[in-house]
Amino acid sequence: MRDKPEMPAVADHEAKLELALIEEFLRRQGHNLQGLASLEAAERDRLLHDASLYAAGKLAEIEARAHYVEDLHRHE
Question: Where are the domains of the chain?
């Protein structure tokens, strides 16, 4: 259940997608979320920073594509 019921369910889906993208990035780097605790702090922080940037970029791309498709349908 969401902490803020007034927020649309889309936020939950975006959070799940963001986490999936972070996990994808970590897998590609040979890591996973569970194994991060065993890394040195600097390495863990670098990986999480890079994973966050990757996820943010992918989410922005997905959002831009969604707006593009929405605009196409609006102008039909």
Answer: 10-74
